[in-house]
């Protein structure tokens, strides 16, 4: 069993490595619709690119799923991909939406996903203010409550010390 397990494991690892090396670096198969940025807030502008229509191919884009309607993808002067742009409506709800493009010459249809969020992915929200945990600390707003707390701690410490000394002497409790 061991003699066949090693070659099979090596073969499986080689196949997996070859499959990973064959996938494009950007994570999407060649010819798909690339949506940039992939995650936006309502009201943002989105750029869409595809190389599926060929070097001189134009395409008709459809962003009606998110409420933006139709837009045109045209090849750029120095680009091999057709690109277009649309604006996500301010009334768009959070979610994942499918954006499509249909090539003018071949009729090929490609799709890409757009994620609408309420906050931008690059922004971090930092907390402000203090934590509401109760009465307050040693430097709290009420010195009477602070003094009462210190007195209670002192009495507890003195009582604990007295009980420990009685137990050590053998007086019993």
From TrEMBL:
Signal peptide annotation: 1-27
This protein's UniProt keywords: Signal
What top-level branch of life does the organism fall under? Bacteria
* Protein name as annotated: Carboxypeptidase regulatory-like domain-containing protein
């Amino acid at each position: 069993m061991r003699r066949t397990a090693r070659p099979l494991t090596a073969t499986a690892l080689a196949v997996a490595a070859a499959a990973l090396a064959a996938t494009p670096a950007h994570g999407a198969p060649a010819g798909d619709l690339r949506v940039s940025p992939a995650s936006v807030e309502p009201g943002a502008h989105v750029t869409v690119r595809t190389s599926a229509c060929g070097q001189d191919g134009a395409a008709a884009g459809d962003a009606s799923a998110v409420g933006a309607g139709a837009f045109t993808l045209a090849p750029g002067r120095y680009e091999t991909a057709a690109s277009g742009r649309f604006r996500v409506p301010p009334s768009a709800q959070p979610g994942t939406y499918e954006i499509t493009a249909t090539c003018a010459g071949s009729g090929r249809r490609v799709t890409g996903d757009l994620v609408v969020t309420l906050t931008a992915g690059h922004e971090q929200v930092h907390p402000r203010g203090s934590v509401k945990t109760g009465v307050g600390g040693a430097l709290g707003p009420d010195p009477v409550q602070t003094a009462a707390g210190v007195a209670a701690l002192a009495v507890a410490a003195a009582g604990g010390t007295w009980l420990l000394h009685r137990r050590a002497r053998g007086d019993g409790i």
